[in-house]
UniProtKB/TrEMBL annotation:
<keyword id="KW-0175">Coiled coil</keyword>
<feature type="region of interest" description="Disordered">
    <location>
        <begin position="1"/>
        <end position="21"/>
    </location>
</feature>
<protein>
    <recommendedName>
        <fullName>Protein GrpE</fullName>
    </recommendedName>
</protein>
<keyword id="KW-0143">Chaperone</keyword>
<dbReference type="GO" id="GO:0042803">
    <property type="term" value="F:protein homodimerization activity"/>
</dbReference>
<dbReference type="InterPro" id="IPR000740">
    <property type="entry name" value="GrpE"/>
</dbReference>
<comment type="subunit">
    <text>Homodimer.</text>
</comment>
<keyword id="KW-0963">Cytoplasm</keyword>
<dbReference type="GO" id="GO:0051082">
    <property type="term" value="F:unfolded protein binding"/>
</dbReference>
<keyword id="KW-0346">Stress response</keyword>
<dbReference type="GO" id="GO:0000774">
    <property type="term" value="F:adenyl-nucleotide exchange factor activity"/>
</dbReference>
<feature type="coiled-coil region">
    <location>
        <begin position="26"/>
        <end position="64"/>
    </location>
</feature>
<comment type="function">
    <text>Participates actively in the response to hyperosmotic and heat shock by preventing the aggregation of stress-denatured proteins, in association with DnaK and GrpE. It is the nucleotide exchange factor for DnaK and may function as a thermosensor. Unfolded proteins bind initially to DnaJ; upon interaction with the DnaJ-bound protein, DnaK hydrolyzes its bound ATP, resulting in the formation of a stable complex. GrpE releases ADP from DnaK; ATP binding to DnaK triggers the release of the substrate protein, thus completing the reaction cycle.</text>
</comment>
<dbReference type="GO" id="GO:0005829">
    <property type="term" value="C:cytosol"/>
</dbReference>
<dbReference type="GO" id="GO:0006457">
    <property type="term" value="P:protein folding"/>
</dbReference>
<dbReference type="Pfam" id="PF01025">
    <property type="entry name" value="GrpE"/>
</dbReference>
<dbReference type="InterPro" id="IPR013805">
    <property type="entry name" value="GrpE_CC"/>
</dbReference>
Length: 193
């Protein structure tokens, strides 16, 4: 019987050791699970960031391609504007009453209309600001003239039309801008001062 209590004591110690080992194993497993959950969260965050980066890169590339398509005609359009200007000047300087040049003038008008329609199809729009307020974003002032009968900073003459390509300035309109005349209200204010 003496052996029996010893055996029971050893069994209890063995059970206690196994219990400690089980607790140690459980703690180790809990620590590993926490570590793996942290690694998983980090990996998910990195995957989300990578997906966002790819989406942003795709969006930027699409925008660049869209801009390239939209403005690919810019240099070519600038070269064509000189032809349109020449046709317009030729029509301005020729008389529509002269029977000898009437067929040539008619041909120039048709050619100019064809050019204008083609430019419009490609979103190239003329800027002809006669009578409008001066806009430095679309107009280039060549000179200023005193005018009493026109509001100051109004376009009174257009030397050369401007053009936009898809809403972006291709060439500014060259204009003459009005300024207040000496006899206007500004002149009387200056004289009293």
């Amino acid at each position: 019987m003496v052996d029996e209590p010893r055996q029971e004591l050893q069994d209890e110690e063995s059970v206690a050791d196994q219990g400690q080992e089980t607790v140690a194993v459980e703690e180790d497993l809990v620590a590993r699970i926490a570590s793996l959950e942290e690694q998983l969260a980090t990996a998910q965050d990195q995957a989300l960031r990578a997906a966002a980066d790819v989406q942003n890169a795709r969006r930027r590339a699409e925008q660049e391609v869209e801009k390239a398509h939209k403005f690919a005609l810019e240099r070519f359009a600038n070269d064509l504007l000189a032809v349109v200007d020449s046709l317009e000047r030729g029509l301005e300087l020729s008389s529509d009453e002269d029977a000898a040049i009437k067929p040539m003038r008619d041909g120039m008008e048709l050619t100019l209309k064809l050019f204008s329609d083609t430019l419009a199809r490609h979103q190239i729009v003329a800027v002809d600001p006669h009578g409008e307020p001066f806009n430095p974003e679309l107009h280039q002032a060549m000179t200023m003239e005193e005018r009493d009968n026109v509001e100051p900073n109004t376009v009174i003459k257009v030397f050369q039309k401007g053009y936009t390509l898809s809403g972006r300035l291709l060439r500014p309109a060259m204009v003459v801008v009005s300024k207040a005349g000496a006899g206007g209200a500004a002149g009387s204010i200056n004289e009293q001062a």
